[in-house]
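Reminder to self: tokens first, then the designed residues, so the page reads top to bottom the way the pipeline ran.
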């Protein structure tokens, strides 16, 4: 009897110890957890130049771009290494909330709908929306009315998908996970136009004479770009905003963007 009681007491002590360990971990801020593991894991969706895209550097495939340069600065200020996870755009916020990544930096607009599930940093870049078409069709598409009933390519889960549904009359939406796949659909004549940020459209058009950016203007409720952070992480939000403030003050944001555009055009 005493032996059984002894074992029961030991088991209870072990369970209490495990519980205390897990409680201690859960009480640590997201920022503290990142610093403890020594790395910042970011989620992105490469294939969206100049923000994030694949590039062969010294014979090795790398993910580079405007957002990646900013992420590197954030990691540097936190004193940790940077790890990049490339995934489908529509799955980024789920990955963030499930703890697979620490932050999402992927040319993401902080819409009111997204703010319901995640927090955002301050806006670090404001974009202009554009429409890519086949070069031979550029003169056919000058206004939103010209896109009426057309097959419109968009990246799934983006603000451009929402804009296509709201601003184009009777659109036939073709939403795919990756921008390169949508561009291929445009080149093959399976979609009539692709909605993206104008600078992204220009990056693709500059590398392919079969493509062109039309003169169509789209209105977005919020064209700003920000970093998504798991809710309840005020210290991490503050640290990220501090880095962004430094980069803006030193004009590094503009420098990073110009460098990324040039890299996308040259390769």
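Designed residues (267 positions):
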């Amino acid at each position: 009897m005493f032996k059984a009681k002894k074992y029961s007491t030991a088991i209870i002590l072990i369970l209490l110890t495990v519980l205390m360990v897990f409680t201690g971990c859960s009480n640590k801020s997201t920022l503290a957890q990142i610093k403890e593991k020594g790395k910042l894991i970011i989620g992105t969706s490469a294939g969206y130049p100049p923000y994030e895209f694949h590039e062969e550097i010294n014979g090795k495939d790398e993910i580079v771009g405007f957002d990646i340069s900013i992420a590197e600065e954030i990691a540097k200020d936190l004193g940790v290494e940077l790890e990049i996870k490339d995934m489908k755009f529509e799955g980024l916020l789920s990955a963030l909330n499930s703890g697979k990544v620490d932050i999402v930096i992927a040319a993401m607009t902080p819409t009111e709908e997204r703010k319901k599930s995640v927090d955002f940093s301050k806006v670090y870049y404001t974009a202009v929306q554009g429409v890519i078409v086949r070069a031979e069709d550029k003169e056919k598409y000058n206004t939103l009315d010209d896109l009426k009933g057309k097959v419109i390519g968009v990246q799934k889960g983006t603000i451009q998908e929402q804009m296509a549904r709201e601003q184009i009359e009777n659109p036939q939406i073709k939403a795919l996970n990756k921008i390169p796949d949508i561009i291929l659909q445009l080149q093959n004549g399976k979609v009539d136009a692709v909605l993206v940020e104008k600078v992204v459209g220009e990056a693709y058009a500059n590398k392919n004479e079969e493509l062109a950016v039309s003169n169509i203007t789209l209105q977005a409720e919020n064209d700003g770009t920000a970093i998504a952070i798991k809710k309840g992480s005020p210290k991490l939000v503050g640290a990220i905003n501090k880095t962004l403030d430094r980069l803006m003050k030193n004009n590094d944001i503009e420098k990073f963007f110009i460098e990324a555009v040039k890299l996308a055009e040259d390769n």
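The first strand starts at residue 39 and ends at 44.
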